[in-house]
Structures are given as structure tokens and as C-alpha cells.
Design a protein that fits this description.
52% helix, 7-stranded mixed β-sheet, 7 strands, 341 residues, single chain, alpha/beta
Length: 341
């Protein structure tokens, strides 16, 4: 039920004919993307068959088709007035770990956009860009995945939010990423669940009872996934991953005063709208070597990072609200009626 709400299949109020047409267009786009995923899985099976004979070729084919899917998604977003504003530290296309808050299913497209953004400032050729473009690996629900599959939804249905991989199988799960010769991004959403008003209210009650920090714009992070990643890298003594990026996402609906910062559903993401959506993305870069390896210290480190992120989101919301109010006041002052008075 909650997943269908995040996708946008549920409609709470009556909608106009135009909104019905827009929703139909968005659902058609989702069906096209689903068709691409279906086609990709046939390509993936073919690549698995030739992997032992041509390992590099099979990996490159899967890489090209996976990045093409995300590029297609980003192209559809730009057609629907979806705008991205990136600020903070520089993003490198080298292998890294990305930790982000989780507001919408559209967060996955934001990560794909950042991968392309990381190579925009280079003067490389198209071929070099394709080689340097980091491959996005989402680590969630017991698995690393690059494109959505039914297995993700199956794992999601049978597991709780505190899932954790056994240390004995970490090397198997992370083997391909750690041994890859090309840049890899490991993306985690430590909150696991998508932020909703209901989840936030329940969290505040639990935080007061358990004496945890009260977060107003985020869900309290789960530490098991991050600990799995840090343990796997340290266990392998891998020098492939040297940086960790703390990503903060905020969605803003332009021309909309009510629910201005409400994150879009998947259908809204691909729907043409009279109020375009702007994604504010703040990047903080840190060296992975500064992350504690012991679990208790790592949990405190992430908790403090999430407290800072919560304050950062509150400041960003206050700033954007002030700018909108100031812009509206300026428009009112320049109106013919105000001038006549």
C-alpha cells in the first residue's frame, strides 16, 4: 500500500481532465521504462552466458545498457521541467560511497544525474566520458543492484528496516564492485524508508521515549548497511574507495505555496506540471579513512552527520521560503493595481 502511494497510483482527491491526461502520460513513460528494463534483463542473461569467454566485453555491454536507462530517465525529467541545482563540494567521477537522505523514489534518478554531473567539467571526449562515468550501485535490502528488479521488491517485502548481511558473505556480495577496473559508486539510503508525515510523527514519539535526537526533516539512520560497506572495504584492504560523499536532497515545487517541499511521487516526477520541481542537492566530501571502523564509533559518527543534515535542511527550507515570499512581495509591488494606488 505504501509503495503504491510512493509510485503515485493512489489519488486522494478528484482531479481535472487535464490532470488525468498528464497522469496518463506519466504512466505511459513508466511503462516505456519498464519495457526497457524487461529488454535489459534479456541482455543481462546473454552477457552472463558469454561472460567466461569475454568477461570485459560482457561487463561493458551491461554497463552501457544500464547507464543508457538512467540517461533516458534524466532526459524524460528534463522534458518535464525537472531542474537540478548542485552546491557544496566538488564531485569526482572516481569510485566513492554516497550516503543520502531518502525523500522519494526519484532520489535514484538524482544519483544518476550526479554521476553525469561529475564528468561535466572535464574536457574529455565522449568515449573517455563513457569510460570515466561511474557506475551506480545501490546497496539496499541485502543486495547490490544497478537497475530495479523484482528481487528488490521481494526482499523488501520479507525483511525489516534493520536488515544486515552476515560478515561471512560480504566478500561475495561486494566482490564485483571491489575488483572492478572502472569507477563505481556505492549508494546507500541509511534511513531505508522514504520520509512521510506518518513515519516522522511515529519517529518523534519513539525518539522521546528512547532519548534519541529528534529530527524534524529526516528519519533516524539505520547503521547496518553502512557498517557492512565499511567492513567489506576494510576486510579487502581496498584502495579503490577513498572518498565518501554526504548528499542532502530537497525537492521544491515552484509556484506552489502549499506543500512547497513535498517530495514528488514517481508519477509526478514524470508528469508535465504547471509547477516545475527543483531538486536542491548539497554535496559534502569526506575521506573514507576518517570513518571509524568500530561499530559504536561509526554509529555515533553517522548520527552526528544526520543531525547536521537535519539542521542544513531546516536552513535551506527557511532560505527558499524567504526567497519565495520576497519574490511574491516584489510582484505585488509591481502590479498595476499597486502602482495606481
Amino acid at each position: 500500500m505504501e509503495l503504491s502511494k510512493h509510485i503515485g497510483f493512489q489519488v486522494e482527491n478528484d482531479i481535472s481532465l487535464w490532470e488525468t491526461v498528464v497522469r496518463a502520460k506519466a504512466i505511459f513513460t513508466l511503462l516505456v521504462l519498464a519495457g526497457y528494463l524487461f529488454f535489459y534483463h534479456f541482455i543481462s542473461i546473454f552477457c552472463s552466458m558469454i561472460h567466461y569467454a569475454f568477461p570485459e566485453t560482457s561487463d561493458e555491454i551491461k554497463r552501457i545498457f544500464a547507464s543508457s536507462f538512467w540517461n533516458l530517465c534524466i532526459y524524460c525529467l528534463t522534458l518535464n521541467d525537472f531542474q537540478f541545482k548542485v552546491s557544496g563540494d566538488e564531485l569526482d567521477p572516481d569510485s566513492a560511497i554516497l550516503l543520502s537522505n531518502h525523500l522519494s523514489l526519484a532520489d535514484h534518478f538524482v544519483m544518476a544525474y550526479l554521476a553525469n554531473y561529475s564528468i561535466k567539467k572535464t574536457n574529455s571526449t565522449n568515449l573517455e566520458n563513457r569510460i570515466r562515468l561511474p557506475r551506480i550501485n545501490f546497496f539496499s535490502w541485502f543486495t547490490i543492484w544497478r537497475l530495479p528488479t523484482l528481487r528488490i521488491f521481494f526482499n523488501m517485502a520479507k525483511c525489516d528496516e534493520n536488515w544486515e548481511l552476515d560478515e561471512s558473505i560480504l566478500e561475495v556480495v561486494f566482490s564485483e564492485v571491489l575488483h572492478s577496473k572502472t569507477p563505481e559508486w556505492l549508494v546507500l539510503f541509511p534511513e531505508v524508508n522514504i520520509l512521510t508525515e506518518g513515519n516522522l510523527l511515529l519517529q518523534k514519539q519513539q525518539s522521546e521515549r528512547l532519548c534519541l535526537p529528534v529530527l524534524n526533516n529526516l528519519l533516524y539512520p539505520r547503521f547496518s548497511g553502512i557498517f557492512n560497506v565499511v567492513t567489506a572495504i576494510n576486510k579487502k584492504n581496498s584502495f579503490k574507495f577513498t572518498k565518501i560523499y554526504d548528499i542532502t536532497i530537497l525537492y521544491q515545487r515552484e509556484g506552489c505555496v502549499e506543500n512547497i517541499f513535498r517530495a514528488p511521487t514517481l508519477v509526478e516526477t514524470f508528469a508535465s506540471s504547471s509547477s516545475p520541481i527543483t531538486v536542491h542537492i548539497i554535496v559534502k566530501a569526506r575521506f573514507l579513512s576518517r570513518l571509524p571502523s568500530k561499530r559504536a564509533k561509526l554509529e555515533r559518527y553517522i548520527e552526528h552527520a544526520w543531525i547536521d543534515k537535519d539542521k542544513q535542511l531546516a536552513q535551506l527550507k527557511e532560505k527558499q521560503t524567504f526567497e519565495i515570499q520576497n519574490s511574491q512581495a516584489t510582484k505585488n509591488c509591481n502590479s498595476p493595481l499597486y502602482s495606481a494606488i
